[in-house]
Amino acid sequence: MWRPASTRCPGGRGEAAISDSGEGSTMPKGARVIEGHEVARDMLREVHHDILELSEVHRLTTTLAIVVVGDDFNTLRLIQNKCQRAEDAGVRVQLHTLPPETSDDEVITVIEGLNHDERVHGILVQHYLPRYRDARRLIEAVDPVKDVDGFHTRNAGLLANDAPAFVPCEALAGMHLIKQFVDARPIGWHACVVGDTHRTGRPAARLLLNERCTVTIANEDTRDLAEVSRQADILIAATNRAGMIRPRHVKPGAAVIDLGRSRVTVNDELRIVGDVRLDAVREVAGWVTPVPGGVGPVAVAMLMRNVVTACRRQNRVDEKARHAAG
Amino acid sequence: MWRPASTRCPGGRGEAAISDSGEGSTMPKGARVIEGHEVARDMLREVHHDILELSEVHRLTTTLAIVVVGDDFNTLRLIQNKCQRAEDAGVRVQLHTLPPETSDDEVITVIEGLNHDERVHGILVQHYLPRYRDARRLIEAVDPVKDVDGFHTRNAGLLANDAPAFVPCEALAGMHLIKQFVDARPIGWHACVVGDTHRTGRPAARLLLNERCTVTIANEDTRDLAEVSRQADILIAATNRAGMIRPRHVKPGAAVIDLGRSRVTVNDELRIVGDVRLDAVREVAGWVTPVPGGVGPVAVAMLMRNVVTACRRQNRVDEKARHAAG
Description:
- The structure is a homodimer.
- Chain A is an alpha/beta fold.
- The first copy, chain A, contains twelve helices and eleven strands.
- Chain A has a six-stranded parallel beta sheet with strand order 1-11-8-7-5-6. A three-stranded parallel beta sheet of chain A has the order 3-2-4, sandwiched between helices.
- In chain A, helix 7 crosses helix 8 (201-210).
- The two termini of chain A are 38 Å apart.
- Chains A and B meet through helix 6, helix 8, strand 6 and helix 9 of A and helix 6, helix 8, strand 6 and helix 9 of B.
């Protein structure tokens, strides 16, 4: 039903905190800062439980293969972090490190081997490939049912059509935090996604659309970003431009979810920062996720959950369970 | 580059006509009504030329197969119209009319036969299937390289990733009219798509995103539609709710593209109408497309163009031409 103009901001958990009025608002100052670590811990506990069940009941060792080409230090550190989290959750990791001189065809041969290996349930191809590589070709080589990153065209299409898909983990994590902390059913909220990349902004917009939000997608050519983003009850920052989201971009009381991630040097020290100026924006927002420690850890947990889902689907675990029960 | 807030409404053809100011505007009243028939005629002439070349140079008969299940009168009339347009353009049409009692498996067997028939370049499965049918399953059975309707998950994913894809013809036609009449490069315009269906609204939004517009997608749960849509320089109506877009939904001077199509009975007479109240909205808008006679004929021409593209790709015509030239 297309609703009449008068039905603004219906009930629900979000109503008390998301206020329409800017000045004269009765809202307390200071946003709730959503910490991701605890959420990730709970999620990884569930994942661990599922993995034990897959192992004990179905004799399956949930396995993630990671294909890394080259020896970029930052990439390897990121991969190391994922391996550690995977092991903590009980996911077995196969690391395929290929020297930088490996040709794309050789990489694809490795990926195809993993596609056919039924002991491997999820495949990651690392992102920070040297510029000369055809990243899209490598991504498309991954079997969509093992594409736990959700980057394959088939998974993008399934998500676009609101069908069961593997969804990129940062977008999934942002949506999870909104549903856990802001509104379990964000139907009708106005969301603004700032940044329209294929890996974070666009998938996030698709998830919000599938939740029946009104969604605005802003990009580098948006003419007055603050005017656009300030209307949003939910603001998703996905630009990877350090600190570009300031208080003037944020509607008072809004939920601000930071999917950005940039490396900046402060006093000769390398730091990871997000798109949002946390200290300033928390004075205006209702909720805000920090970087690091917000969406990041939840995204890693989401990746592990995707691997478990992949393992279950490939082995038709749920169908077998239903069959046994029936 | 993320632009500063001050660079609103840059130059270009659109600027003179798309005005920010509501009252006190110096704009002339009365929108330009964009007639689609002439555009379609020009397009079909080009298609006809391409088809002759495919026939004479490459010995190919550009062929569209249409699979129709059942005998719904309105569907058959629509199909008849498509057949006529196709023949006019020189596309050979294979009509496969199956009785209403045909099972989905039998329909899929027909589709698979057409997938493997290299004399068939495009396949349409008619949309108004009886409710009990699994329309998605039939659509997914079409080989994506022959899916000239652009409904297959693979084509949705390709469009989502801004890769060459078959795009649903109504969305394609709307975008074509914007580029021909409003702005050939609508970068940075704020577009609002009202209606988020998989077949029209969402593909239209993806096309606008790929053109680097700022895009808002509104749906049935949008709280104050007029407030949202009135901000848009380009308003795409895709709700199939007769006459729901009124002047209060439209920014003065905006381009209003009507992708809607509803059957209504007026004085016992069946009429096709769009989402937009043309007579009222033309007083406010800068451009508006009528229904019928706006997007519709262009969409049919776009379908024929998709069939030609399919024929060229399947037979690698452009590669061969490049090869011959090299």
